[in-house]
C-alpha cells in the first residue's frame, strides 16, 4: 500500500515538470507585455502636439480651442499639463504604474472634450 501511495505522489510531482518540458508554451509567455510608460507618454505627446491647444490667456478662460474639434477650459488645460509633467517625472524615475495613471487621466479628458 505504501509503494502505491509513493507512486501516486511521485506521479503528481512529475506531471507539472513533464508539462513544462513538453514544449507547449504557457499563456503568460505568449501575451505581449503592456506598453511602457515612455511609449504611452510619447503617444500622448504626439496627440497633444497635434491638437495644438493655444496657451490660455487667463487660468479661468472658458474656452481653449485646439485643432480637430478639441476644446477645453483654461482650468482643464492647466490640469492636463500638470498631469503630463507628473507622468514624465514618474516615468523618468521608473514609476510606470503612476505614470500610466496620469497619462490615462489626460487621455480620458481629451476623449471627453472632443466635439
The overall pLDDT, averaged over residues, is 80
End-to-end distance, in Å?
A: 76 Å
Series of secondary-structure elements, N-terminal to C-terminal: HHHEEHH
Reported for the largest beta sheet, the result is:
2 strands, antiparallel
The radius of gyration is 25 Å
Category from helices, strands and their pairing: mainly alpha
Our count of helices gives 5
The portion of residues forming beta strands comes to under 5%
User: How many E strands?
Assistant: 2
Low-confidence stretches: 9-19
Order of strands across the main sheet: 1-2
Description:
With 115 residues, this protein is mostly helical. It has a domain at 37-112. It contains 5 helices and 2 strands; from the N terminus they run H-H-H-E-E-H-H. It has helices spanning 2-21, 27-30, 37-51, 74-92, 96-112; strands at residues 64-65, 71-72. It has a two-stranded antiparallel sheet. The protein starts with a helix and ends with a helix. Mean pLDDT is 80; it is low at 9-19.
Brief description of this entry?
By secondary structure, the chain is mostly helical. It has 5 helices and 2 strands; from the N terminus they run αααββαα. The protein has a domain of 76 residues.
Topology, element by element:
Elements (H helix, E strand, L loop, with lengths): L1 H20 L5 H4 L6 H15 L12 E2 L5 E2 L1 H19 L3 H17 L3
Antiparallel strand pairs: 1-2
Helix pairs in contact: 3-4, 3-5, 4-5
Amino acid at each position: 500500500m505504501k509503494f502505491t501511495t509513493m507512486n501516486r505522489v511521485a506521479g503528481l510531482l512529475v506531471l507539472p515538470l513533464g508539462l513544462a518540458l513538453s514544449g507547449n508554451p504557457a499563456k503568460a509567455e505568449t501575451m505581449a507585455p503592456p506598453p511602457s510608460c515612455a511609449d504611452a507618454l510619447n503617444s500622448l505627446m504626439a496627440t497633444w502636439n497635434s491638437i495644438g491647444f493655444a496657451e490660455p490667456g487667463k487660468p479661468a478662460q472658458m474656452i481653449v480651442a485646439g485643432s480637430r474639434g478639441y476644446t477645453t477650459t483654461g482650468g482643464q488645460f492647466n490640469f492636463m499639463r500638470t498631469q503630463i509633467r507628473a507622468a514624465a517625472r514618474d516615468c523618468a524615475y521608473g514609476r510606470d504604474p503612476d505614470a500610466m495613471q496620469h497619462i490615462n487621466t489626460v487621455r480620458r479628458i481629451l476623449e471627453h472634450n472632443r466635439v
